[in-house]
Amino acid sequence: MESSAYIGLAITIFFIGVFGMLVRKSAFLFLMSIELMLNSANLAWVTFAKVHGNLDGHVYAFFIMALAAAEACVGLAIIVLFYRKRRSVILDNAKEMSK
Amino acid sequence: MTVLFFSLFAGIAVIASLCMLTRRTALGAAISLVVCFLAFAGLYAMLSAPFVAVMQVVVYAGAIMMLIIFVIMTVDTEEEILQKERGTMIGGILATIIMIVGICVYELALHTAYLKPQDASLNGTIANIGSLLFTRHVLNFEMLSLLLLVALVGALVLTKQQKKKTEAR
Description:
The structure holds two protein chains of two kinds.
Chain A: H1 3-23, H2 27-52, H3 56-86
Chain B: H1 2-22, H2 26-46, H3 50-75, H4 86-110, H5 126-133, H6 138-168
Helix pairs in contact in B: 1-2, 2-3
């Protein structure tokens, strides 16, 4: 399979993630769209590792996975805090900074 | 054969990620995202990256999504009202399609110099990646462990302080 097909797939998935981040109102969907975008970046890393015959791309894909785990951990903590304060996970309810 | 498997996995990934956007509940979206991640694992296996494929299943589809689903089940009780404004939706869809097509054409049709034929000798086994991880990228690796520790402590502190405050009220 040609590597350009993989890159095209990565671009498509990335922009689906951007679209999800823009139109959905739930904080969980926001977080999951970010995970989707990180995943498409990973696919690009692994594809270019295959193209150049260099394993560094795999190592960086591994780093991005660990980074996504840390990001999900802190993001979910923030969502739990938000829910405790507002009794809601809809991001439109965060219009005022202090309440 | 590879074309067949690529179109299978790519189709599953795109359809599952579109499903994620259209589910009304966060839980349904999370399940669609797990399916999408499993399809990605298949793509990594096709790119001769078995280590990344296994980590995709264990870390992404296993650990991270399990964490997200767990928090959804404790927190989320309301159904999100999907956006009703037609103009915003159509504009967003059009902008997304234009971006996808535009960047695909720009990168893949006009700038093909960096897309050389694939190197068949590459093999991302755990032994090769491990030796690379502990020689050239050892500093990044140690900083990553520090980052994970900070994220752990940060999440703990964030949720704990709030608890004290609500008890005091």
